[in-house]
Design a protein that fits this description.
There is one protein chain. This protein is an alpha+beta fold and about 140 residues long. About 15% of the residues lie in helices and about 20% in strands. It is built from 4 helices and 7 strands, in the order H-H-E-H-H-E-E-E-E-E-E. It has a 3-stranded antiparallel beta sheet. A two-stranded antiparallel ribbon has the order 1-7. Strands 2-3 form a two-stranded antiparallel ribbon. The longest helix has 6 residues, at about 40-45. The radius of gyration is 15 Å and the shape is globular.
Length: about 140
């Protein structure tokens, strides 16, 4: 049920695949051809809409969800807490991987969407957690 509803959760290494960067400076990672993992800055830009505009209207969210006016349709799939070997935060949060290039090399950023806010922060490459991913289609 969880896989069909929320999709897969990926480690950082699985999400970025071989870590290559395309001609646009994006990391395709595990995304289909012509798509890429969103950057930290792209997720930070979503803060202008607020969390309710990103959250699906759904009974899967403990509070019934948001307005989803952006069409982002976030579901509260939680995360796999690798260090603890358990799943956490289902029905209250959603987590995504994003890429950061602040240090001149591709590093992970964690995106945490709750009922009240969207938090984007850099994390260590050794982060053992499993998060969802979103893919963005490259402009042609």
């Amino acid at each position: 049920y969880n896989l069909a509803t929320y999709g897969h959760l990926y480690t950082w290494q699985a999400a970025i695949k071989d870590g290559s960067v395309n001609a646009y400076g994006h990391v395709p990672g595990i995304c289909p051809a012509g798509w890429y993992l969103p950057t930290k800055e792209q997720y930070e830009g979503l803060n202008t809409y607020g969390p309710d505009a990103l959250r699906a209207t759904s009974s899967l969210w403990i509070d019934g969800g948001g307005t989803n006016t952006t069409g982002f349709t976030a579901l509260p799939g939680g995360k796999y807490a690798g260090a603890l070997d358990r799943y956490e935060d289902m029905t209250i949060k959603d987590y995504y991987w994003s890429t950061s290039n602040a240090t001149g090399s591709i590093t992970p950023a964690e995106v945490e969407l709750t009922m009240h806010c969207l938090i984007v922060k850099d994390v260590q490459t050794s982060n053992p957690n499993g998060y969802s991913i979103r893919c963005i289609k490259e402009k042609e």
